[in-house]
Amino acid sequence: MALVQGIEESASLGSGYFSERVVVVSDGTLEVRAAQTGDAGNYTCRARNTAGERSRVVGLEVEASYYYAPNSRVTNRHGSGSVINPGGSVGDMRQNGDFHQAVQGHDVILPCPSHGSPPPRLYWLLPGNGVLPAPYYGSRLTVHRNGSLELRAIRAGDGGTLVCVVQGERGEARIQVELSVSGPGGAVELPCLTIATPRATVTWETPDLTQLRVTGQARIYGNRYLSAQGSLVIQNPTSRDTGFYRCTAKNVIGGDSKATYLHVV
Q1: Above 60 in pLDDT, residue 228?
Q2: Residue 51, H or E segment
Q3: What is the DSSP letter of 236?
Q4: CA 79 to mean position of chain CA atoms
Q5: Which residues, 6 or more positions from 4, have their beta carbon under 8 angstroms from its beta carbon?
Q6: What residues have CB less than 8 Å from 204, skipping those under 6 apart?
Q7: Rounded to 5 degrees, what are φ and ψ at 129?
Q8: What is the DSSP string of 111-150?
Q9: CA angle in degrees (0–180, nearest 5) for 184-188-190
Q10: Pairing of β 52-61 and β 82-83
């Protein structure tokens, strides 16, 4: 069990806890997404069993300077202080921009959280050279004040490369988002490309916290197909398949993960 301070005013979060920004992974790891200066402080991990109790304190510092943090998180198993390093990688593991899969005719929200004082300027670059500043309110497209881009009744032509641009006093940050739009029904593919030396073990975590390990052979789990290359394919998705799908790669150097949110109406 983890006693979390600075996130929810000293809350006790058990293994399996899941919210929009805070996740306690089944192995006890605490993840903080889009970290803010208010998240800084001491975090206590406490483990109990019939033999007794042990605890360890981790000090977290969050840099106050401007940054863009789409997937910032705390992953620290050694009890030492940590400083968030947005967009960083572990060892030889590398990631590209976010990948989002959407179903034609449905709505989708692409987050672009940013932090800074004064607040940075933010805008989205769309396929076809369209530019939408924040805030922007259109009949079908909206850029909210928090930077999120909302696309309603999504069309096939909305797919492609979208770029969120954040400009502050210290420079500019860009994040590239690949948006794939599929027809109603059919299948949704969630890729997980991992480049790691030494070779990494790859595991998918589904919204119900089921762990699916990538092996040398393809496997079928109900309407989910896990390829030998790491892609997770969901056949004929329904609303019950909505949620976060997290791909995690680990080797002797460390680990890294990436989450994709699938929304099926």
Answers
A1: yes
A2: none
A3: S
A4: 23
A5: 10, 11, 12, 13, 22, 30, 43
A6: 190, 192, 211, 212, 213, 214, 226, 232, 245, 246, 247, 248
A7: 70, 20
A8: ---EE-SSPPEEEEEETTTEEEESSEE-SSEEE-TTS-EE
A9: 155
A10: parallel
Q: What is the pLDDT of residues 154-196, one digit of tens each?
A: 887 888 888 899 888 777 888 888 787 776 666 788 888 777 7
- Are 255 and 90 spatial neighbours (Cβ–Cβ below 8 Å)? yes
Apex CA 145: angle with CA 99 and CA 61, to 5°?
Answer: 75
Say what the pTM is.
0.42
Give me the count of residues in the chain.
Answer: 265
Query: 78: Cβ–Cβ under 8 A, 6 or more apart, which residues?
Result: none
Rounded CA-CA distance 134/110 in Å is 13
Give the alpha-carbon dihedral of 150, 152, 154, 160, to 10 degrees. Answer: -20
Collect all residues with Cβ–Cβ distance below 8 Å to 118 and sequence separation of at least 6: 169
Q: Is the pLDDT of residue 75 over 60?
A: no
Does residue 226 contact residue 216 with C-beta atoms inside 8 Å?
Answer: no
